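Quick one, tokens below:
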């Protein structure tokens, strides 16, 4: 009997406490305020080259349409990010005009061609192998579609068509590797 009475008193006390808590005014205050978050991520093009020169130091014949440079390919690495929807990008070689040799010979820029190769990422397309350069213009090496956001890592090779150029010494001439992204 005693335990029944104790349970009854405990139950009554718990019930009274519940009524008191629901009847008492709440001390918590809730207020909602709008929070906004804005992020702007811009199109980006950053590249590095593993080398800065292509050299043919001792061409001795006139039979090669695609003679590789002495040092072989260079590696292009970096980051290219294009906008979603309508973005695009490219890595191109800007060539000067024809190169005049020290003895007066002419090396036409079209005697030089490029090959860009590697494991293409989704949205990345390489130009056709041995694409001839164009004087005073840019020749695309790789192009990128909208929403491209992957690291770049491929090789760039340059080739010389030695079949028709006159024997001469052609000085180092500046070409530019141009990376663009929109």
């Amino acid at each position: 009997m005693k335990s029944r009475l104790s349970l009854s008193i405990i139950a009554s006390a718990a019930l009274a406490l519940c009524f008191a808590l629901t009847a008492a005014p709440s001390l918590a205050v809730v207020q909602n305020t709008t929070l906004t978050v804005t992020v702007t991520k811009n199109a980006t093009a950053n590249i590095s080259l593993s080398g800065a020169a292509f050299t043919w130091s001792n061409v001795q014949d006139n039979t090669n349409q695609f003679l590789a440079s002495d040092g072989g390919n260079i590696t292009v690495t970096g980051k290219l990010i294009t906008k979603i929807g309508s973005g695009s990008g490219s890595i191109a070689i800007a060539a000067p005009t024809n190169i005049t040799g020290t003895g007066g010979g002419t090396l036409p820029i079209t005697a030089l061609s490029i090959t860009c190769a590697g494991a293409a990422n989704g949205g990345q397309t390489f130009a056709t192998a041995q694409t001839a350069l164009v004087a005073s213009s840019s020749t695309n090496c790789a192009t990128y579609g909208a929403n491209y956001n992957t690291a770049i890592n491929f090789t760039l090779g340059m080739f010389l068509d030695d079949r028709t150029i006159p024997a001469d010494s052609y000085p180092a001439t500046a070409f530019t590797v141009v990376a663009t992204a929109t």
